Amino acid sequence: MEKPDPGRGQRRTLPAFARWWPAALAAWGLTLALLVGADGSPGWQVLRVAVVLAVTAAAAWLWARTRLPGGAAAVVCGTVGVAVGIAIGIRYLAVDGASWRAMAGLLQLATGLVLLIMGAVRTLSRVGRPWWKIAAGLALALAVVLVLWNMTPALVATNVPPIPAGGDGPADFGLAAREVHFAAVDGTDLFAWYIPSVNGAALVLRHGSGSTGSSVLPQAKVLAGHGYGVLVTDARGHGRSGGRAMDFGWYGDGDISAAVTFLEAQPEVDAGRIGVVGMSMGGEEALGAAAGDPRVAAVVAEGATGRTDADKSWLPEVYGARGRIQLGLEWIEYSLADLLTSASKPIALADAAGAAAPRPVLLIVAGEVEDEAHAADHIRRKAPQSVSVWTVDGAGHTGGLSAAPAEWESTVIGFLDASLARP
Questions:
Q1: Which of 240, 294, 306, 332 is the most buried if burial means most Cβ atoms within 10 Å?
Q2: Based on the number of CB atoms within 10 Å of its own CB, is 117 exposed (0-12), middle (13-18) or buried (19 or more)?
Q3: What is the C-alpha separation between 353 and 311, in angstroms, rounded?
Q4: Segment 222-234, tens digit of pLDDT
């Protein structure tokens, strides 16, 4: 008697929407290839596109030949599609409108969901007992959530849509500034407003991720009011600066060094009296720049918490087992981000403070954000003689000036006057 064809039997058990598989996988592979091949050097673009197409072909082969590996391949492809769709499609649509990246990202989200559902159905069809099927389904859902939890932030940080220039300018704060451009080490054109120095000292002023120099004009007004020259920069990919943004600020150290070079060339600035003031990402960049550039004489970093997993090494000390688990997840997230960007993973903030010593560093901590205090304590332990910490009671993240304006002014200006005094 002729034996039944297992392949045909398996195919009959699949739901009707299985016929969508070729179209969904093809759309997934083509849109992902388009997205990953849009940036970088020609050689790197070709390599990334080739990898995506090879993965697509392998997934198609597995689906056609095997049930469990084919279902698993669909789940993997679908999970990647959902993460890319959230990080690029939805975010680009919100910031950049109906651009081609937004549309490609949304197609990734749609095809990812189809592949994820089809893969889950096919994988779970191998489980016979209802209770085992429920348990396996929950385990699969948990695995997908954990992958998305780590993959999506890495994709968000390394695929940032152009951040539009802010509406406010220096004139809105009574500041006389001129628009300037200077080149980063890699040639990227960077934009800033420059308020000339009166007292011979000057500062690079850096904003946080997702904003522009407009967001730190209140701080610029305080600093300029005491005679400091202030270079209010737009980070790369933000506002009117060129290049590609990166939410973890991994390009910022070198870009700040380029800003210091600009300030050195200004005739009214004493080359040995240049500092950096940064908010959030900008504060983290300021610490990193000071570690690698001895021309940075002092740093004020407000809301600096971490831009690599090494910056979170205090988590187990504070939160025990939960902290160790979170640290492991942070390692996955930042390692993935390292693979997704051409920027190099930067020095840890604590090591940066140690490398910058004995040059002084002031860390400003929001009283309402507990983890900022833990991060600041971790950084200070590396260089206790040169790092000081000021906690602003009642302040939120980077909200020191708005929560305590008089105290912020006296503390920051007092620190800068002492750190950048004439020799």
A1: 306
A2: middle
A3: 12
A4: 999 999 999 999 9
